[in-house]
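Chapter summary example.
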Amino acid sequence: MSDFFVTGPFEVPVTTERKSRFVEKTGLNEFWSQAGISQKRGGYVFAMRTGRGILPWYVGKTGRQVFRAECFTDNKLLRYNQCLVRAGRPVMFFVVLKASRGRANLNSIRLLERFLIQVAHVRNPRIKNVQVICNDRWGIDGVLLSDRVRPSKSAQTFKQMIGL
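The structure predicted for these 164 residues follows.
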């Protein structure tokens, strides 16, 4: 079993030009030195911090590459920049695979990404990476994939017990 730890949120540097905001590759050196995990592997979540909290917009993973090589590729920047038309400040969370001997467990990282996408999709149905979203039509009232606005006392206790 692989173990992960979470670090973040780290504010993503943004350039403002003609009333538009962009995430660019320039200026990321300070971001990576602040994060301190540029050479690690795992999953990551790009999100927007607003007055109501933090909303996930993109979930990714590193496989054979490390965070620094994977998180700000051109296709990722395109997705992030689409989110910047909304109000808020962009942030990044990292779910880092703990160091161990040998090769990184790529299967665990893949499963982590699928799980994070499912959970992020519940929070934000407009998430940018929909290709892995499971369209199973089931849920647990008040716990997961629920239409219920106010969970029952049992659902709240179950949710807390299970760690959601």
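To summarize the output: The chain has a mean pLDDT of 84.
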